[in-house]
Amino acid sequence: MNLTKLGALTLVLCATPLGVSANSGGGSVSGQVTLNGAPPKPKTLDLSKEPDCVKLHASNPLLSENVVVGAGNSLRNVVVYISAGDSEAAATAAPTVLYNQQGCHYTTHVLAVRVGQEVKISNNDPFSHNIHPLAKVNREWNRMQPPGTPPFSYAFDREEIIPVKCNIHPWMSGYFAVLKTSHFMVTGDDGRFTLPNLPPGHYVITAWHEQYGTVSKEVTISGAESQSIDFAFTAR
């Protein structure tokens, strides 16, 4: 899987956290992702190509999401997943997840899914969007969604981190992180993650961020123990 920087994806959940295996038992790995150094100041996005968006965000400007930090420089929108050592077959079918266009942006900046998992894409704005995943390994496509049209679903066949853009509104950007493993999570405001239900084995855990690339660490699970590892990216 090519995890180099691809351009400028938070966690959508069902009863079981998205990407977390529904199997019971095993060990777990948890921790926090942080940023070393001063984060860049978020940029106010230029919405001038869509007057309705300008009005909508007149008192609440849309800000760039390529680097979002919380308390203690915790880092949001980081995909943490098992990149090696996961022998789990494509067991149970993963539930359909939603990727929504509303309020002139993608409500989920980074969406992580399994290979073959359905993504339901919706437009809840009163104007058209054009969703365009810039895939390299999977098939590249783009599709217009006028207002009021029903959602459509799509599933990606291969592992890849895919930038997503709207051809109509150039400030709209996000990512689909398509993964072979079912053990993954996208960090929220606190930068924390948990990968539960890991069978005994040796694993490589990788953290990916759209601007700072990847950091990987190895861990061995021997039983039902809980282990803690943290990841830190360096601001630049």
Structural notes for this entry:
The chain has one domain (27-234): Sandwich (Immunoglobulin-like), CATH 2.60.40. The protein is built from 1 helix and 17 strands. It has one helix spanning 51-56, and strands spanning 27-36, 79-84, 97-102, 105-106, 110-114, 119-123, 129-133, 143-145, 152-154, 160-166, 173-179, 184-186, 192-198, 201-209, 213-221, 226-228, 231-234. Residues 1-23 have low confidence and may be disordered.
Gist?
The protein is mostly beta strands and 236 residues long. It has one helix at residues 51-56; strands at residues 27-36, 79-84, 97-102, 105-106, 110-114, 119-123, 129-133, 143-145, 152-154, 160-166, 173-179, 184-186, 192-198, 201-209, 213-221, 226-228, 231-234.
